[in-house]
Amino acid sequence: MIRYVIRRSIGGLLVLLVTSFVTFFIFQVGPKIAHVSPALFYVGKIPPTEAGQKLIEHRFGFDLPLWKQYFNWAHGIIFGRDLGDDTGAVVHCAKPCLGYSFRQQLPVTHMIREALPVELSIAFGASVLWLVGGLVIGSISALKRGSFFDRAAMTMALAAVSLPIFFTGPILLLIFKYKLEWLPDTHYESVFSHPVQWFKSMILAWLALAFIFAALYARLTRANMLETMSEDYVRTARAKGLSRRTVVIKHGLRAALTPIVTIFGLDLGQLIGNAVITESVFNLPGLGLISIRAINSQDLPVILGVTLVATFAVVVANILVDIGYAFVDPRVSYS
């Protein structure tokens, strides 16, 4: 098991290295293909003069070979880096240095550190709701196949999957915030300093996301449970006289969780850094929102840093999914 974790961690590290190089290559070479100097995306709001542009290219190393530019950038992530603009000011970017936004006069790492708690709050609360709701509804639908509950649940699931966040989000805001006034105007607060305020600012975003994902998980759980409950080992467990609860939970649901764990890890990893619409609808300052602002202002260091963090989240989620197989499905072995 330990050797497997080490192998998967090394593989994940290689994926991160390849992804970081490809992303860096696109952001550095892309502007040159469009005959635009990448230095223009690393300065403040006032465009530099032609002489200042040449100076920035030299200070940032844009006149060096691509492999050396990548090495300097990766070295800065681990050990930190000194950066400067056309004014001659030098800024020290402490490790881990994912870049410096001269447009906002902030290190990219600081911006991500401020936005990451919001992203984790969205992912944590919504994932708990959609996972529990999807498993419960899907399991009951499978056990009561063809019943009124089954047909009603699957019909609602189909409708929920078809409704996007930018439709359900404003409806939730209209009902619970403006009509019923159950939730006053709030802004994001840390769960450690103001837990009640944190809950009020996140609950509608959780519901909007969980409404879509729970429907998908319910349909998938139902299909897996129907297939699993017809297996020979389940019929054997019933023949041995085991209780219905033991047969359903220990033998049926546990074996049906393998594909659920797979998509849950992928959904959770992608949600970190990719909840753009949710953050925009509910005005939550997460990674997705700062990415949109960076794209609008052509702030490449911020886009590059957020892309790397989102890639890291997906890679880690995949590793945890592979490890979780052994605990969820007894048929999986890493020996």
Offer a concise description of the structure.
The chain has 335 residues and is mainly alpha-helical.
Biggest beta sheet attributes: 2 strands, antiparallel
Please write the CATH class name of the largest domain.
Answer: Mainly Alpha
Helix content: over 70%
Quickly give the structural class. Answer: mainly alpha
The CATH architecture of the largest domain is: Orthogonal Bundle
SSE layout:
Blueprint: H1 2-33, H2 50-59, H3 66-79, E1 81-84, E2 90-93, E3 100-101, E4 106-107, H4 108-143, H5 148-161, H6 165-179, H7 195-228, H8 232-239, H9 244-271, H10 276-282, H11 287-296, H12 300-328
Antiparallel strand pairs: 1-2, 3-4
Helix pairs in contact: 1-12, 4-5, 4-7, 4-9, 4-12, 5-7, 6-7, 6-10, 7-9, 8-9, 9-12, 10-11, 11-12
Structure, explained:
By secondary structure, the chain is mainly alpha-helical. It has 2 domains: 2-97, no CATH class; 109-328, MetI-like (MetI-like fold, Orthogonal Bundle). Helices cover 71% and strands 4% of the residues. The longest helix has 36 residues, at 108-143.
Features:
335 residues, mainly alpha, MetI-like fold, 2 domains, two-stranded antiparallel sheet, 71% helix
